[in-house]
Structures are given as structure tokens and as C-alpha cells.
Automatic annotation (TrEMBL), chain A:
Dihydroprymidine dehydrogenase domain segment(s): 23-130
Protein name as catalogued: NAD(P)-dependent oxidoreductase
Coiled-coil region(s): none
InterPro entries with a match to the protein in the record: DPD_II (IPR028261), FAD/NAD-bd_sf (IPR036188), FAD/NAD-binding_dom (IPR023753), Helical_ferredxn (IPR009051)
Pfam families noted in UniProt: Fer4_20 (PF14691), Pyr_redox_2 (PF07992)
Source organism superkingdom: Bacteria
Species in which this protein is naturally found: Sulfitobacter sabulilitoris
Annotated ranges, domain FAD/NAD(P)-binding: 144-427
Alphabetized GO MF terms: iron-sulfur cluster binding; oxidoreductase activity
TrEMBL record, chain B:
UniProt name for this protein: dihydrouracil dehydrogenase (NAD(+))
PANTHER family on file: DIHYDROPYRIMIDINE DEHYDROGENASE [NADP(+)]
Enzyme class, UniProt record, top EC level: oxidoreductase
InterPro entries: 4Fe4S_Fe-S-bd, 4Fe4S_Fe_S_CS, Aldolase_TIM, Dihydroorotate_DH_cat
Catalytic reaction annotation: 5,6-dihydrothymine + NAD(+) = thymine + NADH + H(+); 5,6-dihydrouracil + NAD(+) = uracil + NADH + H(+)
Keywords from the named record: Iron, Iron-sulfur, Metal-binding, Oxidoreductase
Protein's organism: Sulfitobacter sabulilitoris
Domain of life: Bacteria
Length: 443, 434
């Protein structure tokens, strides 16, 4: 029976089936052929194009758009994928309004950038849907590399290494590959099993073996990998979650946002995922927004996202903030949690308003809640890792770490934004450095 | 990736995309960068006689025609041949050819219509290691007034004569570049062939005035209140060039004469079209001037993808492929009947097809109260105008009527056999088939 949105507590099936399907479908439906041509026609084929500079993977955007405009979307796909093997996922999840599309000269001219992300999706979807893999492997080098983590960084690195002729073993703690593409990214950005389809397509290069449910530190050690392989690439992302550090944090109904999202992403039926009537999300990044929006889409009546600073300091882009607002999420800023109240399960959360310098004002806010999601940052887990810098593995050019023969990239490594596209770029660049090192051509 | 290797009259280049003789090939700096970008060959900016070079105007030399969104469709120029000394050009050509032996380097030449002038310059050009020469009989402004360029290109006897001199004084292959500013392109093409040309290239630019300043009442581009006709090129001239190429390719007198296709080539598709109509390779100027050298990457990827799709393994398999299908009007099948059809799912109800057909064609499109547009088969003569004006690609298509079905416009059954005007009962000169 369909539950009402007014039903208190944490319950499943608040909405009817059709509503779930509509809510969790594609955020931006794919462009049709006509739309793609019209969108492509707007590109000026700029010289030394600013959009390329703004893309962390340096995709030749004017070239691929011209290839779409001249009726060769497969050539466009190759242009994209040769720089960014996860061009399909990035087309869906990149904050383009802060990257390529922000830099587009037509954003400056008319406030309407060329739809780079959607055109990228148009090109890559066409090719991938047909299952065609446009790259081949170079002759075998006889070298083998171990990769820890099958997220975007690990897979991008693995693909490039395989292409260059190396043998690659990828170890991942989880039962499925993809990292946060599979367990983290919002459902409406990558519906219909795209994350797994993309991994399957990527693996067609050959030479990559996935080892599931194999965690470094539990099932294998870094030392063993260093011994058994010619090189190791660490790409395990950020497995830990920051705690609130307030009283009552342990009450039932207080969860890590990433766990809630992972559960949601793995659910085959949204009607089976329970959600509170009154949900409070604490944090200001992409994870917080995704948890808040998806709680709302699951049928929560009141969803409040509470952030300790102003909107301009939120890590979630203005586009993401607007998306949340448009879905009915209330955003409260300048408030820090001081206590979680409730008798066993959470009943409400108490906040204190703070000023821009995070100094308490004495003004309090109490939000009714039967579910609280913590999204105040993820942390690196593990012992015996290479030297750290600011809580992440310190890397230099090409992803080199303090240990010889060990590279790192993606969220677990220092520098760069925590984005899918940066993870891909770092994975690819590390692969090039590993290759140069193994072949003795490194500078 | 298909192999795009090209062999044009014995001149090899890694792809059939050459830059035409014009500003993009004006100097060593440009040509080196063009080769780095991937161009298969260049025809160096036209060389003149030894001695003080020509001078260009010092104000605007270009004018343009735009499509929607300021897309450049046509360019007009009043530039002359190279304004740099001959020795400098020759020295640079030699240096470039030495460093890029796999690319084609052709010298374009325009000297006065005197045997001595041609005899004098050819050995110097040969000395650069150039792969061939192109005779510029096409420049429509400035040089023509001095008895060169299109002034020669418009007189078939001169073409033949100069071509013969060149064949006599050099071992290099000779390409004759034709002007479109003539009544029938076959005359100059045949003259080139008689003179012994190894190939013709076409088209050079078309006499034109792009616009008029309505405050100053002077043509553009304007120099100090005055203007002159210039040479028109770019996407807008492609149809004119395609026709001229096709005419030469299917003319029995010139059918075997290799053609380098020029005029509005902007994408891989344009290039493939020129080649299908008989061009052995293509030359590009305006597209490079509009978008930079990098566009060749799209031409390369596009042509090789097309060839892979078609299963072609060599660019020669495209060359002349459409020539047998270029014919005269009186050979077209009058029993071939089509009707326009509107795809209601794609239609955005703009009504352009209706305006076009209702006001200027055959009143064959119906418009309903709720703006549904549909073709009235009883009235549609299949003129294609609606297809051409519809803003949505493939929204209106031409559907072929099967033989045996009845054309609701004429009430006649579509006949399966081919029948053209020469045998049509309305043709006073019709001969019954024997
Ligand atoms: C909720 C959420 C939403 C996001 N939305 C976006 C978005 O819209 N756009 C965007 O660009 N970015 C987004 N991001 C960020 C993006 O997902 C990450 O930056 C990116 O996935 C990082 O890739 P990675 O390969 O470094 O790590 P991950 O994707 O985290 O992959 C790490 C992999 O390593 C495995 N692993 C971990 N520890 C071990 C171990 N000890 N042994 C073996 N394997 C291990 C994990 O199981 C995982 O598969 C989002 C992140 C989150 C959390
Ligand atoms: C600015 C300009 C200068 C040109 N100069 C020459 C020239 O010196 N010699 C020549 O043979 N053609 C010259 N051309 C003609 C081009 O080589 C070419 O035939 C013509 O532009 C058509 O090709 P397009 O449509 O690709 O531009 C010139 C064209 C332009 C636009
Ligand atoms: S900046 Fe915009 S217009 Fe320029 S090349 Fe990039 S997408 Fe095209
Ligand atoms: S294109 Fe260059 S040379 Fe020509 S007018 Fe502009 S700035 Fe001057
Ligand atoms: S022109 Fe095309 S889109 Fe417009 S009404 Fe006609 S069929 Fe429809």
C-alpha cells in the first residue's frame, strides 16, 4: 500500500510507482539528432579554446563539436574518449557550469554557453550504445601493474595502461566496480545502469582483470603488491566519513549521507527505500545536496539542508543549490549542530546560528527530524600508506608518491577537486608516468 | 582509420587536402604550421616576376556575407599575388620542402604572357624542389588589368600557349588553375588539355561586390570611399565550383584530365563531394581563413570514417564515382514520381513549408486549425521546396511512389519503365522509341 507523505517516521513506499520512476529519471534527457545539430552549430571553433583549458581532461571540445556538426558523431566520440575514457559519465556528472561551459565564449557573449556536456553525451552514447570500443592494445610489454580501487581514477589508469600494452590487476573492496560512479553519484544523473554499462564497455580494451571484494589492508597489503607488481596505483578514494562531534550523534536515524546514497543507488525498487518524513541533512557539498534532493524525491515531506557558512562558501555549485531549491529542499545557512535530541531514535536536531567567522550568536534553531544525514566530508582510511599531505596521499607530477613504484590519484591523492573528471585525468596522467617509468623513458 | 594517402598526377601527399594558393600559404611560417596541423600539401601563394613585387591596398581587402549567427558563408577579396620578393619566396619554399619531403608543395605562378618571362622563372622554381606548378589564370582583380590572371584565363588560346611553354621549359607537372569568370568552363579546360596540362584546378574566385555602404554609397570592401569588384569564395561558391568540376569530368574531350577541386570546401563532406564529381584532390582557402589550420583534423577524421563505413580502402575509390550519374536534363526519368511527406513527430508547426508552397508553389500543403501541416498528394508536384525551407532536418522527406500505384495528382499509374523528355508526347521533336 502506498504510504502518505504525511506518515511520520522512517518508512518506504511514500509515493506511487509512476512518481518514483518520473522522479529518478534522467535529469537532462539526451539530445535528439536535431537538437544536437542546432547546439553544435553554435560553437565558434575557437582558437586555443578556453573550454579546453577549463576541462580537467583537456578534451578537444571545438574539434568534437565540429565532428558532430559535420555528421560524424563517432569521430567526435573518439576525440572525447581518447582524452577521457569516462567521457560518457563525465558528460552526465561534470559541473559543466563551473568548468567548460563557464569558460565558453558564448557564455560571455549571450549568457548561454554551447551545451558542451550534452553534446559530449550525444557523441559518446551513440558509440557506446552500439558496444563499440574504438581503442586497441599495443603489443604486450610484459609489465604488470596493480591498481587499488575500481573508481574513475583506477579504471582510467587501468585503461590507459592496458592500451599501452601492460597487464593490469584491479583490486576493489566492494562487490561491484565503478567506485562512486556506482555507489555515489545521484541516481537521476546516471540512471538505467549506465555506470556498469560504461565499466563493461571500458573493459573491452582487454588486459584488465578485476578482483572484487579484495580490500587493501584486509585481504592484501601494499607491501605484497609492491613485491608482486612492477608498479602500484592507489585510487581508493575516501572511505571514511567525518563525525559531527555532537551529543546524540549515535541515535537511531542518524546516518552517513554516503551510506544512504549507496543504498539508494543499489536499490532495484525505489519504493522499497525507507525515508523519513522530516529529514535534516548537515553539510554543504555535492553529497549533502544529493542526499537532500534524493530524500525529497523519495517522498520526504520536509527536507532541510543545514550548512555552517554562507551559500557562497558551499561546495555544491549554484546550479546544484538551485536544483535542490527547485525540488523543494530548504537551505539553511550559518548554523552548526550542537545536539541531536530524541529518545533512542532522533526526534529533533538543535543548531546554533553563527556569524561569518563561525562565532556563535546564541540564537538557536530546532529542526524536527526522524532522519539525519551527515555529509560533512569524507576522509582517507588505511595504514602504511605513502606520506600524507592534508589528510591525503601527497603526490607530485604524474601522481608519484613518497614510495618508489607507487603512484596515487583521484580523491585519495592531494591536489585537484574531488570530481569524477579530475579523478579520470589523474588516473590517465599517472598511467603515462607509470608507463614512462616502466619503459625507462621517464624524465 | 582508412588510409588517406593521395597520388595526384604523381604528386604524393598523406591526404588529399591541400591549401589553395592564397594567404594561408603566403610564407614559410604559415606553411610550416599548416603541415604541423596535418595538411597534405600546399599551393604556395602565387609568385610573380623577379624585381619589385606588387603592392596591396593598405585598407580592408576582404568583405563577407553571413548566414544566421554570423556564420561566414562567402568571402570577397581584392588581394593580389604575393607582395614579397621572388627570391624570398623561393628560398622559403626550398627550406620547407626539404623539411617536409612527404608533403606536396606546388608553386603557383603568374608572370606576363610572354615566353621569355615563363622561361626565366621556371628553372628557379624547379630549384626549390617543388613537386609541381600551378598556373594562376584566375585572379579576377588587379592582375587582370595588367593582362595577367583571368585576362589570360578568359582567352583559351592564351591558356594553351602558356601551358605549352611551361611543358616545354620544365619537367615539373603543370596544373592550370581556371577562372570561373567565363561563359563555359569547357573552353579553357580543353585549351589547357591541348596545351599539354597534366591537370586543371578550379575554381578561382568569382567577380563580386559583397555589399554597399548605404551612408557613403560605396561598395565594400571600401578604400577611401571607393571600392572595386573582388573575388568571391567560401561555402557560397561551392555549388558553382561543383558544377564546373562535373562538367569537365563528364565532357568526353576532357574526361581523362585530372582535376584539383577548389571552391568552398569546408568539411570532409564537401571534399568527398568534389572527389565524387571527378576531383582527384581538393584545395581549401576560405575555410582555413575562417577557422584556422586545425579544421583539417575534422576533414581527416570525417573522410576516413566515411571511407571505413563504405569499405573504401583508397581515396581513388571515391574519385569520379558520381560522374556517371551527372547527365543532361533531357535524360532524367519522367516516370519517377515522388511526394513530399511530413513526419508529424518531428514537425514543430512553424508553417514555413505552408508559406512556401501556398504562396509560391502548388498549394499542396494543408494547415489545420491546430496547426497540423500535411501534404495534399493531389496537388504536390514534388518540387522539394518545402524540404528545403523546413528548419528541421529530415522532417519532410520525398517518398518515391511505387510503380503501379496511381499518382493522385495526375490520375495516372506510375509506369515502371524509364522514359525521358526525348520520347515524351508533348515534345514536338520527340522520336518514338525504335
Ligand atoms: C554523493 C556524491 C556525489 C557526487 N557527485 C558528483 C558529481 O555529480 N560530479 C562529479 O564530478 N563528482 C561527484 N562526486 C565526486 C566523485 O564521485 C569523486 O570525485 C570520484 O568518484 C573520485 O574517484 P576515485 O576513483 O578517486 O574514487 P572512488 O570513486 O571513491 O573509488 C574508489 C574505489 O576504491 C575502492 N576502495 C576503497 N578502499 C579500498 C581498499 N582499501 N582496498 C580496495 N579498494 C578500495 C572503493 O570501493 C571504490 O570502488 C560525488 C561524490 C559523492 C560522494
Ligand atoms: C585573399 C585571397 C587571396 C587569394 N590569392 C590567390 C592567389 O594568389 N593565387 C591563386 O591562384 N588563388 C588565389 N586565391 C583563390 C583561392 O586559391 C581559391 O581558389 C578560392 O579562394 C576558392 O577556394 P575557397 O572557397 O576554399 O576559398 C585567393 C583567395 C583569397 C580569399
Ligand atoms: S569556447 Fe564555446 S564556442 Fe568556443 S570552442 Fe569552446 S564550446 Fe565552442
Ligand atoms: S586579421 Fe590581423 S592583420 Fe587583419 S585586420 Fe585583423 S588584426 Fe589586422
Ligand atoms: S516547415 Fe517543417 S517544421 Fe515547419 S511546419 Fe512545415 S514540416 Fe513542420
Amino acid at each position: 500500500m502506498v504510504q502518505d507523505t504525511f506518515t511520520p517516521g522512517v518508512v518506504a513506499g511514500r509515493l506511487d510507482q509512476d512518481t518514483y520512476e518520473a522522479q529518478f529519471s534522467d535529469l537532462h534527457p539526451p539530445l535528439g539528432a536535431h537538437e544536437a545539430l542546432v547546439a553544435a552549430d553554435r560553437c565558434y571553433f575557437c582558437h586555443d579554446a578556453p573550454c579546453i583549458t577549463a576541462c580537467p581532461t583537456d578534451i578537444d571540445i571545438p574539434l568534437f563539436i565540429r565532428q558532430i556538426a559535420t555528421g560524424t558523431p563517432d569521430a567526435a566520440a573518439k576525440t572525447i574518449l581518447s582524452q577521457n575514457i569516462m567521457g560518457g559519465m563525465c558528460a552526465r556528472v561534470c559541473p559543466t557550469e563551473q568548468l567548460c561551459e563557464q569558460a565558453c565564449v558564448r557564455e560571455a557573449a549571450e549568457g548561454k554557453p554551447v551545451l558542451i556536456g550534452q553534446l559530449q553525451r550525444y557523441a559518446t552514447d551513440n558509440l557506446q550504445a552500439r558496444g563499440e570500443h574504438p581503442f586497441t592494445r599495443a603489443e604486450a610489454t610484459g609489465k604488470a601493474v596493480a591498481i587499488v580501487g575500481a573508481g574513475p581514477a583506477g579504471l582510467a589508469c587501468g585503461h590507459r595502461l592496458a592500451m599501452l600494452g601492460h597487464r593490469v590487476d584491479v583490486y576493489d573492496a566492494r562487490p561491484k566496480p565503478g567506485g562512486l560512479n556506482e555507489y555515489g553519484i545521484a541516481t537521476y544523473k546516471t540512471p538505467d545502469g549506465f555506470a556498469q554499462a560504461e565499466v563493461d564497455w571500458l573493459l573491452k580494451i582487454g588486459g584488465i582483470t578485476l578482483h572484487h571484494n579484495k580490500a587493501m589492508g584486509r585481504d592484501i597489503t601494499l607491501g605484497e603488491l609492491q613485491e608482486d607488481y612492477d608498479g602500484v596505483f592507489l585510487a581508493m578514494g575516501l572511505g571514511g566519513v567525518n563525525a559531527l562531534g555532537t551529543t546524540g550523534e549515535d541515535k537511531a536515524g542518524v546516518l552517513n549521507a554516503v551510506d544512504f546514497i549507496a543504498e539508494l543507488r543499489q536499490a532495484s525498487d525505489m519504493a522499497a527505500v525507507p525515508v523519513g518524513r522530516d529529514v535534516v541533512v548537515i553539510g554543504g557539498g555535492m553529497t549533502a545536496v544529493d542526499a537532500a534532493v534524493q530524500a525529497k524525491l523519495l517522498g520526504a515531506l520536509n527536507v532541510t539542508l543545514v550548512y555552517r557558512r554562507g551559500r557562497d562558501r558551499m561546495n555544491a555549485s549554484p546550479f546544484e543549490q538551485d536544483l535542490a531549491a527547485s525540488k523543494g529542499v530548504r537551505i539553511v545557512t550559518h548554523a552548526v549542530p550542537v545536539a541531536v535530541h530524541g529518545n533512542g531514535a532522533v526526534r529533533d536536531v538543535e543548531f546554533e546560528y553563527v556569524d561569518d567567522a563561525m562565532k556563535g550568536t546564541g540564537q538557536m534553531l530546532r529542526l524536527q527530524a526522524d532522519q539525519v544525514f551527515k555529509a560533512i566530508g569524507q576522509t582517507l582510511e588505511g595504514d602504511g600508506l605513502p606520506q600524507l599531505d592534508g589528510g591525503k596521499i601527497a603526490v607530485s607530477q604524474g601522481g608519484r608518491t613518497s614510495l618508489d613504484g607507487v603512484w596515487a590519484g583521484g580523491d585519495c591523492a592531494s591536489g585537484g577537486d574531488d570530481l569524477t573528471v579530475t579523478a579520470v585525468a589523474e588516473g590517465r596522467d599517472a598511467a603515462m608516468d607509470i608507463h614512462a617509468t616502466l619503459m625507462g623513458t621517464a624524465g | 582509420m582508412a588510409n588517406l594517402q593521395s597520388d595526384f598526377i604523381g604528386i604524393k601527399s598523406p591526404n588529399p587536402f591541400w591549401l589553395a594558393s592564397a594567404p594561408p600559404t603566403d610564407k614559410e611560417y604559415n606553411v610550416r604550421r599548416a603541415f604541423e596541423a596535418g595538411w597534405g600539401g600546399v599551393v604556395w601563394k602565387t609568385l610573380g616576376m623577379e624585381g619589385p613585387p606588387v603592392v596591396n591596398v593598405n585598407g580592408p581587402r576582404y568583405g563577407a556575407i553571413y548566414g544566421a549567427d554570423r556564420r561566414l558563408l562567402g568571402l570577397n577579396n581584392i588581394e593580389l599575388i604575393t607582395d614579397r620578393p621572388l627570391e624570398v619566396n623561393l628560398r622559403e619554399m626550398k627550406a620547407v620542402k626539404r623539411d617536409y619531403p612527404d608533403r606536396a608543395l606546388i608553386a603557383s605562378i603568374m608572370v606576363p604572357c610572354e615566353e621569355e618571362a615563363w622561361k626565366a622563372i621556371l628553372p628557379h622554381v624547379e630549384d626549390t624542389g617543388a613537386d609541381g606548378i600551378e598556373l594562376n589564370f584566375g585572379c579576377p582583380h588587379g592582375m587582370a588589368e595588367r593582362g595577367m590572371g583571368s585576362a589570360v584565363g578568359q582567352v583559351p588560346e592564351y591558356i594553351e600557349m602558356v601551358t605549352r611553354w611551361c611543358k616545354m621549359y620544365t619537367r615539373m607537372p603543370v596544373i592550370v588553375k581556371l577562372t570561373p569568370n567565363i561563359t563555359n568552363v569547357l573552353y579553357p579546360a580543353e585549351a589547357a588539355k591541348r596545351g599539354g596540362a597534366d591537370a586543371v584546378s578550379l575554381i578561382n574566385t568569382i567577380n563580386s561586390i559583397t555589399s554597399v555602404d548605404l551612408d557613403l554609397f560605396a561598395p565594400e570592401p571600401m578604400i577611401d570611399g571607393k571600392g572595386t569588384h573582388g573575388g568571391y569564395c567560401g561555402p557560397a561558391v561551392k555549388p558553382i565550383a561543383l558544377n564546373m568540376v562535373a562538367e569537365i569530368a563528364r565532357n568526353p574531350e576532357t574526361a581523362g584530365l585530372p582535376i584539383s577541386g577548389i571552391g568552398g570546401v569546408t568539411t570532409w563532406r564537401d571534399a568527398a563531394e568534389f572527389m565524387a564529381l571527378g576531383a582527384g584532390n581538393v584545395q581549401v582557402c576560405t575555410a582555413a581563413m575562417t577557422y584556422g589550420f586545425k579544421i583539417v583534423q575534422e576533414m581527416i577524421s570525417g573522410l576516413s570514417e566515411y571511407m571505413d563505413d563504405k569499405g573504401f580502402t583508397s581515396v581513388d575509390q571515391i574519385v569520379r564515382r558520381a560522374v556517371p550519374n551527372v547527365t543532361d536534363w533531357n535524360q532524367l526519368n519522367l516516370n519517377y514520381v515522388t511526394k513530399a511527406k511530413i513526419d508529424q513527430d518531428l514537425c514543430i508547426s512553424c508553417g514555413r513549408c505552408f508559406a512556401a508552397c501556398e504562396d509560391t508553389s502548388h498549394q499542396a500543403i494543408a494547415m489545420s486549425e491546430d496547426r497540423t501541416f500535411s501534404v495534399i498528394d493531389e496537388e504536390c508536384v514534388a518540387c522539394n521546396l518545402c524540404v528545403n525551407v523546413c528548419p528541421v532536418e529530415d522532417c519532410i522527406t520525398m517518398e518515391t511512389m511505387a510503380p503501379g500505384s496511381v499518382d493522385p495528382r495526375t490520375g495516372q499509374t506510375v509506369a515502371p519503365e524509364y522514359a525521358n523528355w526525348t520520347t515524351h508526347p508533348n515534345n514536338p521533336a520527340a522520336k518514338a522509341a525504335e
